[in-house]
């Protein structure tokens, strides 16, 4: 007995120390400042304000708030796992930021053996961390902090490979991450929660029900995500009008989505009462669904249609699909990420493919190059672009599902440990 | 009985669906991207950073947080109506954003039959939504979500007409909305709550008293509003020094206001204890009162005097005027919007008129054009400008008061329905 | 008896009114808009966007949130002094902003007898206020609001003198304030709490233990501070790459610090359970420790080492040093500011000195001038710069410790009053 708890006591510290020391060494060997971060690398007559920092940092901070407060804290707080979830999320997120910087850097190509980083790579690392936290929303309550760390190591790696295939090889556009972040994170998490299926979890299901204060907290989280989603989708679009347009498309998509969410929530209830879980989640589906096409000439009109549909799909998912997934497929989706990130992510991918081909390239004027560089250069036409967008969805789903099946399999040997540590982690709530 | 509840169950969804479909159609017909949002509409040699997005978006996000978290969530949470208020506010705010985009667009003039939108129109839509939420602060606890939606349809329309008369026809300056947002929203709401007067509401008055956790939440709301008010007032001023100046004037006005609020709150109490309601509200009055003159050469000195007075007026209002309004005039001002938005808004309008004439136009140097374009062009002198500012206050009060009397009258036929739905909405708290 | 309470009732209002009126008069005499805030002071062909506002205001807002929500509200909420602490912090912070504007302005030199203010002076005033709130974290629970106001008057003055000696006379670099803000604020507060030592405070120590909801609130505070610390450290660095670099160095320092904090917290616990107080505080030490060297060529690699060490030191401080300070030295450090601001601040100062000499000046290329202007001009070499950095730490510690001993001594005559008022202030919690 004493042996096990000594084990407990040492395993997490040792893992954190070793991982961080490895990260520090890798950063020492491979990472350097990019052009905008080091005066040495740019010409002396350069204007101080011609620096990506000034055009991306405010969006970075909004994204940072969404990832750490929104996904990491408030969306999971709802579930009453309280501090154990918050505390572990924070740890794993801090790890993922660093690991993602390396993985994304390696895959996007070294320059003279170095990864050059700046505000854009910080945003990308935050995005990857967001995807990991989405997956955690599916497995919440089943994993120890150590398992979460191991899961994050693999998920960040797979995320980066998938992202590289989409953006680097297929020339896909997905600035707001409908595919790379939301679809990937959701289906990866759903597969892991399927593998870690624990029948007895049903018995403690009352823990999933929310209480008043939790609900108010969660609602703050929802509104924060809702407010900053325009920044999220536009954070790494090209400068100028695409960034402006993406923010606006997302804004109107979310507004329309909120209307349809309330309507559907009242409609599917047998007594007309609104369900807070719907509002806390489905009202955000419009942001997810505008993730791919947001930078395109979707127009506010198109964005509102997309948001309107996303809200409907998401509420229907909570009401009818989630129970089926749990009962028939044994997928216990703790936070309902399939309804907020999974299906709306797929919708977003489809909207992106359709928009790519449906809007004539002339509509972009001289801005075409920034949205579809391969079309502007004449390398491909819009229908080919649309095809690649569709292929990318399939690739993402494959990576997420296969990855989500394999990764926890690797950890299966530690099963007993898991059970003990989970109990342990619950103690933090006392 | 069953009939009524079926009615309930369908009325909100149907209203939401129909309204949203109408909005989508109108957006499809009338709305297009503005110059900064579509590369097609500007020359190819344009710098990407010469885009309003980069100079307004950070302020937009601050305003967005104030409207949705500050006004929409935390100021009303205080009242213990809890989720029903939060949930309905969120719905109506999402609707108002879209409706305001259209109304403000129509009134500010179509170009080739189109409304061109961008980050500035998004800020203006948020401002209009803020005004609606201020009115809700007065009627909180008396209305069903459906009534709130109907009220929002009318209020957004009247707001836009009033704003157009002030800014478009009279050449009034009111960047931070002392008149257009705060005075209008407060007196409109006060009139509606007068019309909807329910004597029995007094009996459940204990619901208005705050509890510890609510108070801490509300205090967060206060501090958020306090912090971002400089962004609010400067969000749509002209670029450059007026924007810089407005933020600074507001900052010092709020600091001085906080000092006088604490002083007055301790002074008017019979035991020297500070009253949290005063601090949560009156400490913000300095932001409201700097809304009109903030962009003018008010100087930090002048701003501090204005804030100092605003705090005093606001605390006196809570202590002595609100009870009179309720007892003599039957105006039940649930959140005390008259003290935070009404009187400080009028003070702000007066300060604006006085500042316009008191500061010689030479003080503005070559910046005069951005603050008083009509004075710079020689079309009017400063005293004429001051006169227009004063006339604008009268116009705003007339619109608010007459509008607030007429609108709920239209809804009076639904009185019985109201009673039922309000009860219903309270159930959400269980 | 009645006499005393009348005294109570009048003392705070009178103090607030008199202080604010003095502030207003001083602002009227000495303060004017700076070049970027008044079009009159710059040439007419100047670009509107060549305005500090656009390059500092987003950071200012992040700093503002950290000071008022993070330090002022959430870090102290933890201690269950609840509203009395929050309310008084807010008051004193609003006062300090204004007083700091004057003190810093006087010391940095008047131009034609005037203090010119703009967004940078607002950030500096916020920084000074942050230092005051850090000190409050040490004395929390022992002081009346009036005492806090008096303490703020002296602390702001000493802060400004120390800052002027460091930045103005010694040519020290300390953009993120490891020395000027954190070390100064912490040791000043620790000295004051030593002087105000109350043996009976131990008995009510249970008040210091946190409860569930307080912990969740405090954790929000922690994450907010953690997210915005990159903005804090980079807010007043030179434009361009130094600002970009500082934000990034801080980001990675915090990520590494979080990893070592979790590891150490689990390691020092006898049962392997994480201690929330460690996580709420020590995870932020990486931001403090990157305050001086953040703008230098510390590299992400170096930043991560610094953050890693800061987390370890901070947890060890909470676990082993704080109890010793309380028992042996009678320093009751209510919020543990020695562990979050004191030791990590000293670490940051040392890292700054070492980095200044360890990184060859050639590494900065043509950016040297912005980081070490005296080295770039040939006035001093890097080892002299490093020496000045080290001297600055000694100066700061002397000012903080001597100031912290003298200031409350001045107030000792009011001791009896203190006891009464503190009781009074506790009533606010009921």
UniProtKB/TrEMBL annotation, chains A, B, C:
Regions crossing the membrane: 12-33, 53-74, 81-102, 122-141, 148-167, 179-197, 209-229, 249-269, 281-298, 304-321, 342-359, 386-407
Keywords: Ammonia transport, Cell membrane, Glycoprotein, Membrane, Transmembrane, Transmembrane helix, Transport
Function: Functions as an ammonia transporter. May play a role in the elimination of ammonia in the gill.
Record-level GO cellular component terms: plasma membrane
Protein name, UniProt field: Rh family B glycoprotein
Listed GO biological process terms: ammonium homeostasis
Ammonium transporter AmtB-like domain residues: 24-406
Membrane topology, as annotated: Multi-pass membrane protein
